[in-house]
Amino acid sequence: MKKLEKELENLPENFIVGIVMPSNSYEEANMRLLRFLVNTKKSKGGYVAVSKPYNYTISLLKNRDINTDNIHFIDCLTKSLGSKVAKTKNCVFIESPAHLTELGIALHDYFTSSGEKNRFLYIDSISSLLIHNSIDTVLKFVHYVTGKMRLFGFNGMLLSLHEEKDKKLVSHLSQFCDKVIHL
Predict the structure, then answer these.
(1) Which is the CATH superfamily of the domain at 14-162+170-182?
(2) pTM, whole model, 2 decimals?
(3) If DSSP codes are grouped into helix, strand and coil, which group holds residue 110?
(4) Could you tell me the pLDDT band of residue 36, with boundaries at 50, 70 and 90?
């Protein structure tokens, strides 16, 4: 993981980074990236939870001493699993990862309501979107989201697994990101 920290050291302002990793290092890299953004850079931001539900994610972050006070969550999974959704001030629940229009609207609302400086958007797995959507639909969505990040001055991190089915996605990440880091 030293490579990850080295790659993150000199990122410019308003960066968008694609992180491509094998599935066996996903959780550890995920925690290191969030610790870097929240605890080291002191950024406020949004976390799009596609691969794990909000309650699990928030518990995991707190157990790793990652400050969740300044993170706004958009949970794409809890409702689709049939779980009851408790009202919370820092999380919006989307019906399903397949509802990219609904996710796009929630992201637009977040971008336009966040007046802070030093902001980020973190998508916990572009690869998980491929389970529910076609590759072309996901690529269009990533193009839309990265455009919004640039328009509103957000830093961004997009995680993707380096698995066989994700090769087309990974090959296109470089056109949307300032840097793609392969772990």
Answers:
(1) P-loop containing nucleotide triphosphate hydrolases (3.40.50.300)
(2) 0.91
(3) helix
(4) confident
